[in-house]
Amino acid sequence: MSTRKTPAPRKAPARPRRIPPGASRPPASAYPFEGVPETGAAREILPGVLWMRMPLPFVLNHINVYALEDGDGWTIVDTGARTGITATAWQELLSGPLGGRPVRRVLVTHMHPDHIGMAGWLTRKFDCRLWITRLEYLLCRMLVADTGREAPEDGVVFYRRAGWSESALEQYRARFGGFGKGIYNLPDSYRRIRDGETIRIGAHDWKVVVGHGHSPEHACLHCDELKLLVSGDQVLPRITSNVSVFPTEPDADPLGDWLESLERVERLVPDDVLVLPSHNEPFTGLHSRLRALANGHRIGLERLRRSLATPRRAIDVFGALFARKVGDDENLLNMATGESLAHLNYLVARGEARVVVDAAGVAWYQSN
Ligand SMILES: [Zn+2]
Predict the structure, then answer these.
(1) What is the rounded CA–CA span in Å between residue 39 and residue 16?
(2) Domain locations in the chain?
(3) CB distance 321 to 340 below 8 Å
(4) How far is the CA of 110 from the centre of ligand 1 (A)?
(5) CA distance 350 to 353
(6) 257 C-alpha vs ligand 1 centroid, how far in Å?
(7) Fewest beta carbons within 10 Å, which of 29, 143, 231, 352?
(8) Sign for the pseudo-dihedral over CA of 320, 218, 259, 256
(9) What is the whole-number distance in angstroms between the Cα of residue 214 and the centre of ligand 1?
């Protein structure tokens, strides 16, 4: 996201982005709650389902977290980033709205620091298990292990190939390795959750619905009985989630994965749910939002196809994809590059574009 303090380009950025153009919003009437919970306070969505909000030190200044009544305690879904303010907020919540009852498990939708940052803190405090998909757990362990390392040559090659200047590459080198700073030490063991699994939480069954593209194995939780979908970053009502290619997997097709996942969620989850997202506010109108998100990417792809009539580098196609000017900010440049490559790789993977790498190691894309 655009304002991360310590960006680590090998990680998947936590921050959803507000473009591509064309993604429409649900009407205002699709938000049944007025206002948002204050830090340290909770809002009851339904009996036994609480909505809470943690501040984030970024332009996107909050993340929603949820508590689901679980017998005499709680299952917590997502945790906030590792900051002193978040720890204080959790202390207030635990002794206040959560009634001093224990956390029985911590379930995390995906491994971005705003979601998983406090998971280790909570699981140690309550001696309970972290529940998460396997790829999210493993990738998080891997990225945390990069903390403090020098930037890898593969990363430099990757961004040079995208057209970055020497000074941008220098910023990448200088800022590499910050991912783990937003995360308390992860537990060394976890409970794997998987797509299609039903998890009993208190009096209700929740089904795991996995999506790909924003992160490798992102879990949503659907309760048919309560007509609720805890959507994580898979579906957000007023911003779009970042879908990026990263240096560890330069040929990945995350946009293909993402578009497939949007269709899959529509197939598996009925339209009549109240969606509890990680950012913005709870909303209805799931299916129309899923289609609007996909449509936004399709419009971007169409503009991109037109702009590739002549050869272009990844950094030359920002104007076709993003409403906002990218400029020199390394973090924004990093996000925009990853997302442009997601769109370019999508076209290349489908034989719609070709790529030629010049003598300087820079990749030029052109429509077929
Ligand atoms: Zn995320």
Answers:
(1) 21
(2) 28-177+186-367
(3) yes
(4) 7
(5) 8
(6) 15
(7) 29
(8) positive
(9) 6
Total residues belonging to the chain: 368
CATH of domain 28-177+186-367: 3.60.15.10
Is 243 in contact with 213 (CB distance < 8 Å)?
yes
Please check whether residue 365 is in contact with residue 353, taking contact to mean a CB–CB distance below 8 angstroms: yes
Show the DSSP H helices in 146-253 as ranges.
Answer: 153-161, 166-175
H helices of the chain, in order, are 84-95, 113-116, 119-126, 134-145, 153-161, 166-175, 254-268, 286-307, 318-321, 330-349
pLDDT in tens, the chain (368 residues): 333 333 333 333 334 444 444 445 545 448 999 999 999 999 999 999 999 999 998 889 999 999 999 999 999 999 999 999 999 999 999 999 999 999 999 999 999 999 999 999 999 999 999 999 999 999 999 999 998 899 999 999 999 999 999 999 999 999 998 899 999 999 999 999 999 999 999 999 999 999 999 999 999 999 999 999 999 999 999 999 999 999 999 999 999 999 999 999 999 999 999 999 999 999 999 999 999 999 999 999 999 999 999 999 999 999 999 988 887 777 889 999 999 999 999 999 999 999 999 999 999 999 99
User: Cα(366) to centroid of ligand 1, in Å?
Assistant: 31
Which helix H or strand E contains 117, and what residues bound it?
Answer: none
Distance 17 CA to ligand 1 centre (A): 10
The rounded Å distance from CA 25 to ligand 1 centre is 19
269: closest CA among 321, 222, 338, 310? 222
Give the residue from 180, 176, 299 showing the smallest Cα distance to 246.
176
pTM, to two decimals: 0.91
